[in-house]
């Protein structure tokens, strides 16, 4: 069963603005990170036990080029997520990654690696393995 962390919610840090001008988002808006390599997004994810979990980050990239970002879990880089174009800012898709979490609070962060910054982010769903 997934726990949802909205990118505009209290359990997240959005380095940018919370916007509502592109439809299809969950919650009260989405995170529009600044177009700079310093505009990270971070989620505080609670896990009841240590172990494997599936992260599913919903994003939209209406631009024409990738918006790559390093996925960093508890300070350790897991991958560089490409965030390929989705065709429109109101076309949302999911990037799913399996990670290891510790019991209690975890930090899940995407750090853009280029000056374009991140795509728009809607939410992070976290599903622990059975
Ligand atoms: C447009 C779009 C924003 C998006 C931005 C970007 O301004 O409306 O939602 O964040 O492009 O290129 O990052
Ligand atoms: Ca943006």
TrEMBL record:
Range of the intact protein held here = 600 to 729 of 729
Q: Which residue spans traverse the membrane?
A: none
Query: What's the family?
Result: Belongs to the glycosyl hydrolase 43 family.
Residues of the CBM6 domain: 3-127
Q: What is the species of this protein?
A: Glycomyces tritici
Q: By what name is this protein known?
A: Family 43 glycosylhydrolase
Upper classification of the organism = Bacteria, Bacillati, Actinomycetota, Actinomycetes, Glycomycetales
